[in-house]
Sequence to fold (680 residues):
Amino acid sequence: MIRVMISKPGLDGHDRGAKVIARALRDGGMEVIYTGIRQTPEQIVQAAIDEDVDILGISILSGAHMKLIPKILTLLKDKGSNIPIFVGGIIPDEDVNELKKMGVIQVYGPGTRTSEVIEEIKRYFEHANV
Amino acid sequence: MDKEEIEKKYKEWNDRTNSLTKKYPEEGNLKSSWSEDVKRLYTPLDVSDYSEIGFPGEYPYTRGVQNTMYRGKLWTMRQYAGFGTAEESNKRYKYLLEQGQSGLSIAFDLPTQIGYDSDDPHSLGEVGKVGVAIDSLTDMETLFEGIPLDKVSTSMTINSTASVLLAMYIAVGEKQGTKRDKLRGTIQNDILKEYIARGTYIYPPKPSMRIITNIFEFCSKEMPLWNTISVSGYHIREAGADAVQEVAFTLADGIEYVKSAISAGLDPNVFGKRLSFFFASHNNLLEEIAKFRAARRMWAKIMKEKFNVTDPEALKLRFHTQTSGSTLTAQQPENNIVRVTIQALAAVLGGTQSLHTNSMDEALALPTEDSVRTALRTQQIIGYESGVAKTVDPLAGSYYVESLTDEIEKKAFEYIKRIDEIGGMINAIEAGYVQQEISNSAYEYQKEIESKGQIIVGVNEFVMTENNQRVTLKVNDDLEKKQIEKLNKTRSKRDLQLVKNSLNKLREVAKTDGNIMYPIIDAVRVYATIGEISNTLREIFGEYKESVLI
Fold:
């Protein structure tokens, strides 16, 4: 079973998307851990490693993504972890490209179907296993 | 036609229509947003007694809180704005005032809302992002530079740190020569919905409620024109609640605040006049209109029956409305202008006192100046061209709207009863009951969209391939650095001993049952920062930890 952590870094309290996606992934057959809001990058990285998750989802709508996501990526790298990251939220196009260059596997904007996220995550791990 | 005859004719008509539906089936989404079947037709049989509807400006206020409503004066057009530094926001406010906006509405960044200075590690990436960064009185002076506080009314979306921002506003007023009893405006100051839906809490519920009652008490003595709380359903709705839940949970929060004001010795007849509410307006035009009417009638009944309020002014539910951010789509963003128009129309037909219309590009980024202008123009077109403002409560008597108004009232009162049984709103929040109800609604709604039970134009139907290289607003990247430099400059210029003394004084008062507003005003005057003040209170009160539920 795919173990996924949904996290909310920074001070942003908009957790509707995070909660909906967490539930959808659970209903989609994954094991889901949700961190709750207002987590620091350090807390998220530590929790992801401690919980031994396969993939980490980051939800952010405050506009702080270009500071917080690189920090999470760096911290993971420092700890020798290669947990893949996907992002959901309001992320302008140019930042999406930038984040993907840094190694984020996918960025989901408003209007994304949860089934699309589930399928893509499953497909990612099928390919990873091959 | 009398009732019996209508009943008979209605039955005959329904039978005839049923036979037609074999050939012309009824299809599509025929349920209300709270999943009740919407009837094919509403008739006088669905409308309750006229005493429930009444007259505008009179109990039970279904038809509005003023006798003449918009015939006397249109609603206040108030766009929520703020970003980046105080200088940039100050410019945007002056622009909005020049464009004919009638009041200011300040958006603060998250560190300001949660009581962290801009150089606090928690503030990383958030400085100036969702609103303006305020660290000390220095920033507040810049924010209102050239804006006379005796002329404008200012609404501040601030909750956990409302006491600090209100203190700074008072201090800016003093410097401009305007005494606090002349200041007009509102602080949101609604902590309960922060635990439920919005997330900018600091302290646990009990000390938070104490701070709020301190503010109530202070303003009742010192700031007679200030609205001390805006009980907010907006964020509850945006987090996924349906229209019934929005009304129910908001009024249940309101009940909790009135209870605490009474326990602090305030008279609900006086205090009730300084309460205001804040709701969302969504796309379902008639439901939303009914929602506003139901909320008004329910609040009047609650104040009268539960709290024995007799002063009519304290029975009136006055409210601000904002159109719904969560209904805006990143796909085909021009369509959002239409959504906002429907939502704004609902607010006006529902009798709002003030209105913020969202901009079409808000699902993409912070709005640009052009899109903010179109949003404001939408209100002006409704006000000056559509004709809906010419008579009071024009939809009263619509069989459907009256029936919806009754239904929302009935269902929302059932929720309030349930919350009462749990032991009031604070218990219901601590048990996670309210959060779970909202989260269930949000999830069900998402499933509806994915199964196309709910069509969202441009998202799950009428989809186009778009080449959206749109111009969006960018918040300057070195803003954080600049803001921190400004903060350090303020820190180096102030008298540190005075700051220390003021914080010690605050600590002492916080430990007793004194009113913390007075020491907070003294602290901001000597340029203590929002982080220093909030951290002082964190030491005494502790911090809230949310119960994480999915």
About this structure: The helical segments of chain A are 16-27, 41-50, 65-78, 93-102, 114-129. The longest strand of chain A covers residues 55-60. The mean pLDDT of chain A is 95.
